Amino acid sequence: MAEAMDAARAGAVLAIDLDAVRANYRRLAETAGKAVCAAVMKADAYGLGMDRVAPALALEGCRVFFTAHLEEGIRLRQLVPADCTIYVLHGLPPAGTLHTALEFVEHGLVPVLNDPAQVELWRRACRQLQQRLPAALQFDTGMSRMGMAPADVARLLADPAWKDDLKPVLVMSHLACADEPLHELNGLQRLRFDALRAQFPGIPGSLANSSAVFLGSAFHHDLVRPGAALYGINPQPGHPNPLRQAVSLRARIVQARTVQAGDVVGYGARYLAAGPRRIATIALGYADGWLRSLSGCGHAYVDGVAVPIAGTVSMDSITLDVTGVPEERVLPGREVELLGEHQTVDDVAREAGTIGYEVLTRLGSRFHRQYL
Ligand SMILES: Cc1ncc(COP(=O)(O)O)c(C=O)c1O
């Protein structure tokens, strides 16, 4: 539906700059030095559209991809060359059966095994097919989210038969605070990871997400797994962003009016005009991912001039106080910038009290999408 939405009919146009994504990949790969640079594709390539992003990255030389879910992996398999490795981060679904495990094999996907039950199910699949099937092993090194605890690892290694069944091709873990370079957990998780890894000699290791690519070579190991930075999110908050913005969003003005002192605007009458104000309504709202928490504090831009959101963000529309710009620039049919030259994904996230990841992944399906 998103692709089919005609530009003239859509309330907003989302432009995705595939050149920028490719340039960001090159930048990350270069920073990662000798480590292989993979690409994280989960949540439809963080909202940018896996169908277009994955082939573009494959053209750039990316040969290793990560999705979160099995379904995403199955979709991705159709989009990238056969020699690409696709890891599924959630591994085998919790209620998974042998049949589910065999689906991984059918689609050439490599599960990330996060707990002893997943390991056991994968071993069963290996025995059933009489093949040592590839799998990644994830360790929990301090985030307490996914991955085997050190005791699980010890139990696994205590069984001499484990490697007769499955073929470990990657050991990995994930950092909780990589975007805070000085956080003590970074070094601690790395030490724990290196200690666990030492028990799996010869098997490539991976710890780094986007931010950790910029933490130095000690965090790169054999493979880095950036997602956010590919899509222009700043991996080093508080420092200049070394990556290019990959999305821009422009919404159309559907109505413009003058309100007088004492008039209110929007749901809950949260905006009270102190004097005559020009209000422009744009055709995009929280159903399109423009977070309601931006009510009364977010901005759009008209020809480079910031115009504040007046009152509450509605489901399909937002009211802007455009008093500060010439009237002819804010007539119905004209466009305002929500993401682009003057406002990055990280800027919007800051105003909304969230992170760029949430802004991107929430971008809705009603926009006209243009791939540049
Ligand atoms: C296990 C794992 N690796 C890599 C990534 C990519 O992280 P980022 O988008 O911060 O680069 C994620 C995303 O959250 C993840 O869960």
Main features:
372 residues; binds pyridoxal-5'-phosphate; alpha/beta
Instruction: Indicate the radius of gyration in whole angstroms.
Output: 24 Å
Helical/strand content category: alpha/beta
Our count of helices gives 12
The percentage helix is 25-40%
Average pLDDT level = 96
What global shape is seen?
elongated
Q: Which small-molecule ligands are present, each listed once?
A: pyridoxal-5'-phosphate
Q: State the low-pLDDT regions, or none.
A: none
Question: Can you tell me about this structure?
Answer:
The protein is an alpha/beta fold and 372 residues long. A seven-stranded parallel β-sheet has the order 3-4-5-6-7-8-9. A hairpin with a 2-residue loop joins strand 15 and strand 16. Helix 1 crosses helix 3. The radius of gyration is 24 Å and the shape is elongated. The model has no long low-confidence stretch (mean pLDDT 96). The site of pyridoxal-5'-phosphate has 10 residues, from loops.
